[in-house]
Amino acid sequence: MPKITIAIPTYNRAKLLTEAIESVLVQTYEDFELLISDNASTDETKNVVVSFKNPRIRYHRNKKNIGMMNNWNKCVTLSEGKYLVILGDDDKLYPNFLEKSLKAHRDHPSIGFSFAHCNKVDPKGNYLTRWGYKFTPSGYLNLFEYLQFTIKYGSCLTNSSTVLINKKVFSKVGLFETPYGTNTFDFNMWIKIALKYPVCFIDEVLCDYRIHKEQVSEMHWRRKEMPTGKIGTYLEILGAIAALSDKKEFENKEKKKFLTKRLFDINRELSALLRQVIPEL
User: Does domain 1-89 have CATH number 3.90.550.10?
Assistant: First the structure.
């Protein structure tokens, strides 16, 4: 049984999928399986996967398209490793990604997941900028620290392609779900895990995150007239504040004051975004 499963959920991305697979197969840490979960693609996806002829690759094809989130959950249930990476089919890991990420788990055995920096690149792989604008401190982060910075900055601080998850967490937090927004189910998972486990931030760039017109983020984050990405993010953070409010860690007066202030700030910002979408509100 492999130590790590790298899963690539994919749909009609045959051309970009090749680069994602290649980035996995050159990892310096080699005890892994590569699981491709094909969401009933109609392009050359299967042929691309089969062309690699690598025994570590396992190909699964859904009989019908089950949606993006359900395909991610399929990756969880089909994976055989102790640890799991869900890599975007349009992203690329750096060769030392697994080595660095697994070290974080070995150094901090209690963490639920590790995550790292990544760079934004254009469709041809040219560097654009660093993903994200504000980050947590480097290293081990307890429950309060990770969620404190998430709430403070009002954003998701974790790019999913940089995450290595200890699969034991799913028995406690369940699978990916959409209680607040369909476009923030990954952010919802990082919050759920961080409510029960410490995490670890690796302060290095270990992945390329590709920006292009066909990605889901184009619809949710790059349409000024319809800011569904930010709305979903704020809804997730309000849920995190609610979950934190009755925990022991927040009996401290200063921590409660921090949460209360951010609750009002985020509620006000969220109201402005909703009025942008629904002027009559």
Answer: yes
pLDDT in tens, 66-124: 999 999 999 999 999 999 999 999 999 999 999 999 999 999 999 999 999 999 999 99
pLDDT digit string, tens, across residues 259-278: 889 999 999 999 989 888 88
Rounded to whole angstroms, what are the CA distances from 173 to 160, 192, 194, 240?
17, 6, 10, 14
- Retrieve residue 273's tokens: 């975004």
Boundaries of every domain in the chain: 1-89, 226-275
pTM of whole model > 0.85?
yes
